[in-house]
Amino acid sequence: MHIENSPRKILITGAGGMVGRATHAHCRALGDRVWAFDRQALDVTDEEAVARRFDEIRPDAVINCAAWTDVDGCELDPERARRANAQAPETLARHCRRVGALLVTISTDYVFDGTKNGFYTQRDDPNPQSVYARVKLDGERRAMQACARTMVVRTGWIFGLGGKNFLSKIVELAERGERLKAIRDSWGTPTYADDLARRLRELVAVDLPGIYHVVNSGEGASYEQFAREALTLAGLDTQIASVSFADLQRPAARPQNSRLRCLLSEAIGLAPLPHWRDALARFVAAARAGK
Q1: Candidates 132, 192, 212, 223; catalytic one
Q2: Does residue 205 sit in helix, strand or coil?
Q3: What is the CATH number of the domain that holds 21?
Q4: What is this structure's pTM?
């Protein structure tokens, strides 16, 4: 599929996070006029602040990378979770409709319950098992109802430069000599923030509303498989303790299998993202280079 990537006015929310930073850098490299706001510069739960920014910028597209992704924290504070992950996407969508902008908003693989074998596609019914997952699904639906030009991007197992999650920190933790544990029987589809950012911008150019599953290609991995691959690529022989999904007693439920595959991307001719092992190799090389 040929994608016309002419420069656009793009507003990015959540620009202080891993995906927001990667998206900002990619859009700037393409020559877009980019307004990138972290939480301090634009609180997406503040209706008046959102309205002011939209009036100032009149963006062609909004890429919403803002979210409260502390899954256990959401379980303990459902009202904050609702404001950040359900109300905010609806607010952004409403103002996108008002100014004639496209909205691309990020959702999560956690909207599924994790009981399926294989990959979840858009044909599978969501069945969220935690507060985080429920409000993210609510945010999807609210946004799509508020603005017809909404593209929902479900993704998961994101890793990248500056990331604070296990997938992003495994090599750094090993180099610090920390004892490592990884789950052997929980599976997902790893997604490199840089590759996700490129696809988000491609979707802006496509401008075809709907729900997309965006992950790196391949068969997916367990946390243990991912960790061992990362350490091998980094030339480290750190020992990893293998633990079971059931061993971790955490406040919020997580899907044991949340591997994703996209039917819509294939249907419109978007090429699959690179294999997650290729993406991991690029990430480890970039991290070791100190970028």
Answers
A1: 132
A2: helix
A3: 3.40.50.720
A4: 0.96
